[in-house]
Amino acid sequence: MSTLSPLQKARYAYQPKLPAVLQGDIKDITCELGEPTQAISDQEELKSLFANTYGNPIARFVKGNNPKAGEKINIGVILSGGQAPGGHNVIAGIFDGLKKSNPESKLYGFLGGPAGIMKDNLVEIDDELMDAYRNTGGFDIIGSGRDKLETEAQFEQSLATCKKHDISGVVIIGGDDSNTNGAVLAEYFAAKDAGITVIGCPKTIDGDLKNEYIETSFGFDTATKTYSELIGNIEKDANSAKKYWHFIKLMGRSASHIGLECALQTQPNICIISEEVEAKKMTLKQVVDQVADVIVKRAEKGLNFGVALIPEGLIEFIPEVGALISELNDKMAHHADYFSSLKTLEDQQEWLNQQLSKDSSYVFSALPRSIQEQLLMDRDPHGNVQVSRIETEKLLIEMVGHKLAQMKLEKKFNGSFNALAHFFGYEGRCAFPSNFDADYCYTLGYSAFILMSHKLTGYISNVASLQKPADQWVPGGCPLTMMMNMERRHGSMKPVIKKALVELDGAPFKAFAAQRDQWAIETSFTFPGAIQYYGPDEVCNQPTETLKHEKA
């Protein structure tokens, strides 16, 4: 048996806070339904694909009578995709709602992610198992996986598992792709009149599963606070040693929410926002020049040190490189077997030169060999470049170093440039959830059960007014189809939940943009320190800076 740390023991005793409407007898909570909804785009195509679940209304919980809440039911839960702090509390919320409704109801956990429901690999979650994971990080209670639920054969396997165990509801805890799969599964079950409800919960530390109704995905709060602690530590070290530039790559392939939030918390000298690079159509050379310019200006003040934050997905947002990656994804999806037969980089280059457009071929040839190899690694489950493996921070260090060396020869740079590279990724995915995420996740899980008790399928659990204290939050659910559009995946058009990018006219980015020129030249570092769980509200119960600015 593993040894428990003092903090782990203390966190077991923490009772997550619930919104006022969810407090009290669960049979006294009912749903108030709004008007029919529409998808954000491609409405007619999506309506035809989701004939049984499209257009459902927004649901909000209010005090009222729900006699069905006391029925004995069995529910299955899936953890899908990468880990995010708070996942265990989502399951705890489902478990407590289910057992409070009817102690004879059962919660099953599908082991290893979506594969568990397809392979009938599950475990019953009882009090002893649940209590060992409350308020802790990780997904290790049942494990996670990246298998997809997207084919009729997989849906039939899932249906067979649910029928075998008399499961009438499935909760999928995942990001945009996982919840897209959940929407398709809900539609399949509805078309089959299977009587099985499917509910999603918004998970991703990247923060890109958000919209008008999903104010933030769970795990984002904890992850960014964890990264900001580390960034603050490095800033303190940089300001002490005064001789190193630290280039820190942060998770967030498809959006720069993590980088922006960490910048607002720590005030680094440089924070590149991928969406701004794309909007301004900046070339790789212009990005390098911009970074070098800050380093030169600080060196003129005798400040040969600093901190630069680099979003994981930056390279895809540089238009010339993004076009190359798009072409690579498309060509390699359509010729996967042949490409895998090419054993050397030279053979791959020769074939690509024949397949790529002239501009993309030129960009690919101009990249360092190490970056070329990283671009051609095995694809992710969606057929895309595994951007997290591309060492963008090292690429920028190398190119900025060359630029500064040339400037030194031209007598335009008299400082020194010694750079260190870091990548903060896995460090934030399984941290003990902050009080915010512990409360938020518990509320999401509790709400998922209430949606299920009302037989609302194809919904995602959501909570509004998250900038307020937890008892003032507004829980409910919204239909997954209203978040969807059609996008190209594996070379063909697929229905997917649209990712949310950093909005350049949004309040968080504007707050950052208003201060970054000062942060660039002056040393304005802030040091958030470690996540606190006990103490005054301003220390241990604050939401992210992003939420504060968005809801100001």
Automatic annotation (TrEMBL):
TM helices/strands, residue ranges: none
Main location: cytoplasm
Residues where diphosphate binds: G82
Pathway where it operates: Carbohydrate degradation; glycolysis; D-glyceraldehyde 3-phosphate and glycerone phosphate from D-glucose: step 3/4
Pfam family, any one: PFK
Catalytic activity: beta-D-fructose 6-phosphate + diphosphate = beta-D-fructose 1,6-bisphosphate + phosphate + H(+)
Gene Ontology cellular-component terms listed: cytosol
EC number: 2.7.1.90
Binding residue positions for Mg(2+): D176
SUPFAM superfamilies registered for this protein in UniProt: Phosphofructokinase (SSF53784)
Presence of the UniProt keyword Thylakoid in the record: no
Presence of the UniProt keyword Oxidoreductase in the record: no
Family under the similarity heading: Belongs to the phosphofructokinase type A (PFKA) family. PPi-dependent PFK group II subfamily. Clade 'Long' sub-subfamily.
Subunit and partners: Homodimer.
Protein name: Pyrophosphate--fructose 6-phosphate 1-phosphotransferase
Lineage: Bacteria, Pseudomonadati, Spirochaetota, Spirochaetia, Spirochaetales
Gene name as annotated: pfp
